[in-house]
Amino acid sequence: MSRSSKKGPYVYEKLLKKIAKLKPADGVVIKTWARHSSIAPEMVGFTFGVHNGKSFIEVNVKEDMVGHKLGEFSLTRKFTKHGGKMQRELEASQKASEIAKAQASSTDKKK
User: Fold this and answer.
1) Are 61 and 43 in contact (CB under 8 A)?
2) Which residues, listed in sequence order, are joined to residue 59 by a DSSP beta bridge?
3) φ and ψ of 38, to 5 deg
4) Cβ pair 47, 29 in contact under 8 A
5) Following CA atoms 31, 35, 36, 37 in sequence, which dihedral angle do they give, to the nearest 10 degrees?
6) What is residue 88's three-state secondary structure?
7) What is the pLDDT of residues 6-32, one digit of tens each?
């Protein structure tokens, strides 16, 4: 649920203070636990280390991200692929075709 339009977006004050001291070109990662903070236009160009419960995931803020929350870009669950025997067979055939293409291109270069 979003905040009321009369309240405006919630931006964590300490993040704004840290941003005011830095320049986007510095390349410094700003660590934060404030996943609930909205991304403001002042944050564009900075890199944030957003905590996902276990580690900090680096998020480079771009113009498209303004208005979203920091936590949306730092996933808390790791996806492990679906499938079983059939999936392994598909992956093996794709890998074999990639190897064949690489060998064919290397022989073309030698000629």
Assistant:
1) yes
2) 48
3) -75, 155
4) yes
5) 30
6) helix
7) 888 899 999 999 999 998 888 899 999
